[in-house]
Amino acid sequence: MSADALRADIRRINTPATNGDRLWQDIVSTARFGGTDKGGVTRLTLSEEDRQVRDWFVDACEALGCTVEIDAIGNIFATYPGEDTSLPAIAVGSHLDTQPQGGRFDGILGVLAGVEVLRTLKETSTLLRHPVTVVNWTNEEGSRFSPAMMGSGVFAGALALDATHALADRQGATVGEALGVIGYRGEAKVEPSAFAAYVELHIEQGPLLEASDTEIGVVTGVQGVRWFDVVISGTEAHAGSTPMAQRDDALVRAAEIVLAVRDIARRNPPGVGTVGFVEVGPNSRNVVPGSVRLQIDMRHPSDAGLEQMESALQDAVLKAGAGAELKRIWSKAPVVFDPSVVEAVRGSAETLGYSATDVVSGAGHDAAHIATITPTAMIFVPSKDGLSHNEAEYTSPGECARGAEVLFQTILELDRR
Amino acid sequence: MSADALRADIRRINTPATNGDRLWQDIVSTARFGGTDKGGVTRLTLSEEDRQVRDWFVDACEALGCTVEIDAIGNIFATYPGEDTSLPAIAVGSHLDTQPQGGRFDGILGVLAGVEVLRTLKETSTLLRHPVTVVNWTNEEGSRFSPAMMGSGVFAGALALDATHALADRQGATVGEALGVIGYRGEAKVEPSAFAAYVELHIEQGPLLEASDTEIGVVTGVQGVRWFDVVISGTEAHAGSTPMAQRDDALVRAAEIVLAVRDIARRNPPGVGTVGFVEVGPNSRNVVPGSVRLQIDMRHPSDAGLEQMESALQDAVLKAGAGAELKRIWSKAPVVFDPSVVEAVRGSAETLGYSATDVVSGAGHDAAHIATITPTAMIFVPSKDGLSHNEAEYTSPGECARGAEVLFQTILELDRR
Question: Among partner residues B237, B238, B277, which is closest to A283 by beta-carbon distance?
Fold first, then answer.
């Protein structure tokens, strides 16, 4: 055994261990707040169900001796004390709200794993140098009130508090009112400087980890997104009497673009490119298509990558010839997580002997906002069949336990710095 | 001048000439039967408008001294006598019915050019060896009663008379009844053996002649058609969180098939291949398509060509991998016209000094049925912008006149045999 391996072993043995069974019990038990007949959860933000799970969370943390603060947008900060009172907290967490007919893991896993970390600290009488704060961010999902990632957005200064309070749901209730109704419109002024780092454990919501039989995803950032529309105008013609050389078939040109989008993504790893929507006119078997509309989604972890993909798409559309038009209709910049926090996650998985791979989140997360103000990273655990926003969403007890262990190990790693 | 060219010149000088102006006047004048505001024609088969144009046709032919016979399916045969009463007639013609909002040329041009030939024979006191019969076939278009090419189908024995009489339109009127209503349920028993040959002049209904600036299309046959459905089952997935290597994108696979269909047609000239219909599931921008349905139309003048195209399509679908299924749902065998009648058309265009090219009809025609019982060919003249089944359908007076001249010259050529 090498000296390094020996040191890792010793460190592991000396680390108090989170309790996977206890975590799983919390997952099962909190799923009753908004639980559906099919084993899923409908727990829209700031609803009565959300109040119930928030109360449970506050009670659990207070029982562990935490200080619980609630800010004006309803974010909950439960802080377990550290040895050195001059140090900012290491923050972990995620969100307790769900999509309608959502799952039992999306969001809440990251909060419950934080609670499990605190329980472990408490039962082993471990005092870290830094305080540890477990956060529940308000309205990550964005299905009752838009936009999504609202609480973290306000906290990070990306959204103005007053304007956000004034946003209404379809019934006309505003965010401010809804916070009051469930008793979570707080007054705490938590400053970004209160955090030394932020680490969010979340299910992958994609198939990569499961497909590669990997236990832990070391999330290095969140992809940027650009949406495009392409309209191709060809010439509608009779499928029988129009020779191949006389055709201007809009669908053939569209097919070249569909393949180009795939090739562009492949040439720009880990970028992804998708043509998800196609509309053919007149869409009749024996008529050469006169027009095609495509909707394209391109994502890449870096701005440079997105630029390169967009420019290659422009070339592909140019190559498709006259009557092909490209429009960028929406975009969102990529987020790159802090390399040293990412390294702490990577090293923790290694220390624990779990298989791990770097991944970039395809979906948005609260961590994307927090990354703009605090050194941030994320930990992914596998999602069965890549399913999420779905009652069939599933991550096994073992997978959840490993996620919590890596989260704890990462906190210990960051605490040593 | 060569001896051949000299002979051609002499033949041309000695040929009585059809009158293009008179033909054009007939075209304009008969367009009033079912004429639309936009300069098109709606003259559904066996309608009152059809009766009017039939009556006009019968009157015109009787005025020229023709014998007019009407058979049980309403086909009209107007026969101008020949010198040798033992010889069968050279038949020409087409159809007087149109599509709803159809044009002024589709069908009727071939009948009116036949009338113009008879007028020319009459005014120049020319008696050919063979009789000349001008035919109007009932219900070529098939828009009121299905199937199309009904009259020629019954005449050629492809359709049974009694069953055809019993077919009903959307209002419940049968073919037999409708024939009675307009007075065109005849009793003549015209035998296929009554014809030495059949030549049909028609507008091209495609862009080839116009695009190549060619005056006459020498039609060598009618393409066979095969229709296919392809269903591709991939895996629906999140466009953001599903890496390229983990995807089974049904649309990407469909795009390969769209391009394969084009390539297959190009490799099998003069075949054509079209994907006219595409249905994507779930058809949402940020979801990797899970399923795609394609409708494919393939045509070729020869059975061997169709076989080769279908087999290449099978390969392409196989190459598209598991979850891609091909079904042939309909087919129609190609028709090859009689080489000696085709040669008569080709030679006639040459004699008259008109540019000509061999073409294969992409659409069906009465000639396709008649070819099964009588040596047959067709003559095409250009369609502006390839348009047909459209009120904007147009063939110029000069183009119509040249078609009639070639028709007459072909009759003279066949008459010499």
Answer: B277
CATH of the domain at A274: 3.30.70.360
The burial of A122, by beta-carbon neighbours within 10 Å (0-12 exposed, 13-18 middle, 19 or more buried), is given as middle
Closest chain A residue to the Cα of B388, Cα to Cα = A238
The reported pLDDT for the residue numbered B292 is 98
Radius of gyration of chain B (CA): 24
Prediction ipTM score? 0.73
* One domain, residues B49 and B142: yes
Interface of B with A in 344-383 (CB under 8 A): 361-363
pLDDT tens readout for residues B66-85:
999 999 999 999 999 999 98
Whether the CA torsion B110, B112, B117, B118 is positive or negative: it is: positive
Compute the count of residue pairs across chains A and B with CB atoms less than 8 Å apart. 188
Q: Domain range for residue A328?
A: 224-332
Transcribe B236-291 into DSSP letters: -EETTTS-GGG---HHHHHHHHHHHHHHHHHHSTT-EEEEEEEEEES--TTEE--E
Whether residues B251 and B174 share a domain: the answer is no
Last residue of some domain: B300, B332, B364? B332
Shared-domain flag, residues A140 and A289: no
Asked if residue A195 and residue A99 are part of one domain, the reply reads: yes
Q: Does one domain contain both B92 and B213?
A: yes
Q: Which residue of A has its CA nearest to B301?
A: A240
Tell me, yes or no, whether B240 and B375 share the same domain: no
Domain end residue (candidates: B273, B305, B332): B332
Is the separation of the CB atoms in A164 and A150 below 8 Å? yes
User: B365 vs B78, B95, B125, B141, B376, CA distance in Å?
Assistant: 20, 9, 32, 9, 12
Out of A7-16, A264-273, B210-219, B383-392, which region has the weakest mean confidence (pLDDT)? Answer: A7-16
Q: Name the B residues in 195-224 with CB < 8 Å from any A CB.
A: 204-208, 211, 223
Does the beta-carbon distance from A251 to B275 stay under 8 Å? yes
Give the residue among A369, A365, A347, A363 at the shortest CA–CA distance from A416.
A347
Same domain? For B373 and B302 the reply is: no
Q: Is B265 on the interface with A (CB under 8 A)?
A: yes
pLDDT at B284: 85
Which pair of tokens denotes residue B321? Answer: 């991998």
Q: Name the residue among B251, B272, B273 with its Cβ closest to that of A275.
A: B251
Is the preceding peptide bond at B207 cis, omega within 30 degrees of 0?
A: no
Task: Report helix, strand and coil shares of chain B as percent, to nearest 5.
Answer: 40, 25, 40
The enclosing domain of A36 has a CATH number of 3.40.630.10
Q: Which two tokens stand for residue A361?
A: 């989140």
**A410–chain B Cβ distance below 8 A for any pair:** no
- B residues 281-320 lying closer than 8 A (beta carbon) to A: 283-289, 295-297, 299
Ramachandran area for residue B189 (φ above 0: left; ψ -120 to 50: alpha; else beta): beta
* Residues B291 and B389 occupy one common structural domain: no
The reply to whether residue B239 touches residue A283, judged by beta carbons under 8 angstroms, is no
The string of pLDDT tens digits covering residues A201-242 is: 999 998 889 999 999 999 999 999 999 999 999 988 888 888
Q: Is the pTM of this model over 0.95?
A: no
Q: How many folded domains does chain B comprise?
A: 2
Angle among Cα A160, A162, A166 to the nearest 5 degrees reads 115
